[in-house]
Design goal:
The chain is an alpha/beta fold. The protein is 38% helix and 15% strand.
Amino acid sequence: MATSSTPTAAAGGTITIGGDLTVNRLAFGAMRITGRGIWGDPPDLDEAKAVLRRAVELDTNFIDTADSYGPEVSENLIAEALYPYRDHLVIATKGGLERPGPGRWPVNGHPDHLKEACEGSLRRLRLEQIPVYQFHRPDPSVPLGESIGALIELQSEGKIRHIGLSNVTVRQLQEAQRITPVVSVQNRYNHADRESDPVLEACEQQQLAFLPYAPIQDHESNRTVQDIAQRHRATIHQVVLAWLLARSPVMVPIPGTGSVAHLEENIAAAGLELTEDDIRLLTVGG
C-alpha cells in the first residue's frame, strides 16, 4: 500500500467526466498488459495483474482499455485482477477496431460490429453498464452518424453511460456532437507530438476530458526535458507526465506499462511540481 510519503494519482488533481464521474487525472492505460504487438497474453500474467492492483492501490481510479487490446486480453485481466471493483473506479473501454493478427488494426465502424463489441466488453469486464464507451476510430467506409447511432442505441438500453471518441478531428467531434453529447476525446498527444492541439482546445472550451495516448513517447532525446528532469531529480517520463497535467485542466494522461516498477515511476509524476519556468520551457521548446 502507499505510505504518507508516496505520491499517488490523487496528487494530480481531479476531473469530473460527464457531470457525474469524478476521477483522478493521472489515469492508467491498459494496452501494455498484453503480449508483444498488443497480441495475446503478457509474458508474465501475475505481473500484469499486480500492475492493475498496484495502480488502484496508488489511487488510480480511471482505467482505459479496449476490446482490441489482446484482443480481449486486457479486459479479461482487468476483471480477473480487480473484480469486484472498488467504489468509484471508472473503467472506460473502446470498440471499432478488429485484430486479425499482431500489429494489425483494421477499422470497423459498422453498427452491428459496435453493438457486438460492446456486448463482449460488458461480459469480459463483468459490468452491467460501461461508464465511458469510446468509438475507437472513425471508419471511412461508414458514415460517422451511423457508428455513433449504434452507441446511442446502446446508451438507450442502459449498456453505456457516457459516449466518448478517439482518433478524431475537431470536425468529427462537432459532427458527433450534433447527434449526441460526447464526454471525452482520446487522441495521440505528448510533449513531442501536439498535432491534436486544436482538438485539445475544443475540449477545453467545452470541459470535455482529453485522454492523450502515447503520453510518454518520443521525448528521450529532448535536451530541455533531460535538463528539467536532472534539476528535479526526476525521470524524463515523470517530467513529461507532469507537463501534461500542467498543460490543461481537462488533460487525463493514460500512461501504460506491464511493469509494477514503471507504473510506480509514472504515478509519482502526479507529485512532481514543475515551476512556471519549467512549464514555459517545455511548452515553447517542444
